[in-house]
Amino acid sequence: MSTATLTPDVLALDCEAEASRIAGWMVETLAQRLHRRGVVVALSGGIDSSVCAALAVRALGASRVFGLLLPEQDSSSDSTARGRAVAEHLGVSFALQDIGPALEALGCYRLRDAAIRAVFPAYGPGWRNKIAISGGSAGRINCFTLIVESPAGERQQARLPVREYLQIVAATNYKQRVRKTVEYGHADRLHYAVVGTPNRLEYDQGFFVKNGDGAADLKPIAHLYKSQVYAMARHLGLPEAVCSAQPTTDTYSLPQGQDEFYFALPYPQMDLALWAHNHGLPAAELATALHLPLEAAGHVLRDIEAKRRATAYLHARAHLVEPVAEVTGG
Q: Any bridge partners for residue 66, and if so which?
């Protein structure tokens, strides 16, 4: 393969054919494997959940798709507004449930703030926070930086010690796990299945919470690169506010891009890097395609492998002493 062939065109998708294929798979999976009447989709206002909901409506009809809007105190109001707009656009029934009180009762915010104050003692009401990743794309071990902003708008940052990092992540992971509890509550009530919304980049690189947003009965876009999900959104006629929205974690109170928190590059470049890795292309071809130094391209490819190793636990099933032959799928 010549270097000229590694362009965004490698991710070109026949959206109509793929939408039809996914819709058919959803119908078959729901009827023949899961034996459920419809699906629940948590609508974050982002591109992935919106496309999953649109595909579900195409497959099953709006009457068999139930949407959930599950904000908490750190959620962006824009995300909730986009989620509502998608539900109304698709004509699906939906419910809005603020999970903030449940998170408060579980100690999510208290545990997070205690860990932040161990690094920045002045942190308190009115302050905002986020975590940023660094290292992997430069060939070093990934490490995390805590960024805080005072009510006056002054920002400070410091490298997170392991203990505080783990406590902040453990606390914020409550958000995804509480959301999933609510999703399965409604799924049980309706005799529906739960749709998981990771794209290929997130699924491959372990960008999800185990038994949180990683838990689902079917994941219809886990094989699609993020760029392909954006193309699918436009093909399915989703609102422009969704089609043009930039990926965010919507987990921390300060605005935070997914590439800032986890990935080595913004998603268009990360998609190409993952595609190149999956097709065995050398670092030199990726460097040319992304206009990166050869060394930097090599770091990105190695970081893909490092994240796969580090997050294998998230994909793993529970271990058994010995197989239980009478039970399949366990």
A: 40, 93
Q: What is the pLDDT of residues 247-257, one digit of tens each?
A: 888 889 998 87
Return the bridge partners of 68, or none: 42, 95
β-bridge partners, 158? 146
In this predicted model, what pLDDT tens digit does every residue of 35-68 receive, in sequence order?
999 999 999 999 999 999 999 999 999 999 999 9
Per residue in 9-36, pLDDT tens? 999 999 999 999 999 999 999 999 999 9
Can you give the pLDDT at residue 2?
42
Half-sphere exposure of 161 (CA within 13 A, CB side): 8
Distance CA 221, CA 48 (A): 8
pLDDT for 137 beyond 70: no
Read off the DSSP letter of residue 3.
Answer: G
Cβ 229 vs Cβ 47: under 8 Å = yes
Non-local CB neighbours of 291 within 8 Å, separated by 6+ positions: none
Compute the average pLDDT of residues 141-161.
94
Q: What is the rounded CA–CA span in Å between residue 53 and residue 48? A: 9
- Label residue 128 left, alpha or beta by phi (over 0 means left) and psi (-120 to 50 means alpha): beta
Domain parsing of the chain, residue ranges: 107-167, 264-314
Q: How far is CA 317 from the centre of its chain?
A: 20
Residue pair 24/56 in contact (Cβ under 8 Å)? The answer is: no
HSE value, Cβ hemisphere, 13 Å, CA-based, for 52: 31
40: exposed, middle or buried (C-beta count within 10 Å: 0-12, 13-18, 19+)? buried
Record the tokens describing residue 112, joined without a space.
Answer: 């997070």
The residue ranges of DSSP E strands in the chain, in sequence order, are 39-42, 65-69, 93-96, 128-134, 143-149, 155-159, 193-194
What are the contacts of 150-155 at 24+ separation with CB within 8 A? 150/122, 150/126, 151/126, 151/127
- Is 148:30 a contact under the CB 8 Å cutoff? no
Report the alpha-carbon distance of residue 319 to residue 268 in Å, rounded. Answer: 36
Top CATH class, 107-167: alpha beta
Cα 330–chain centre separation: 25
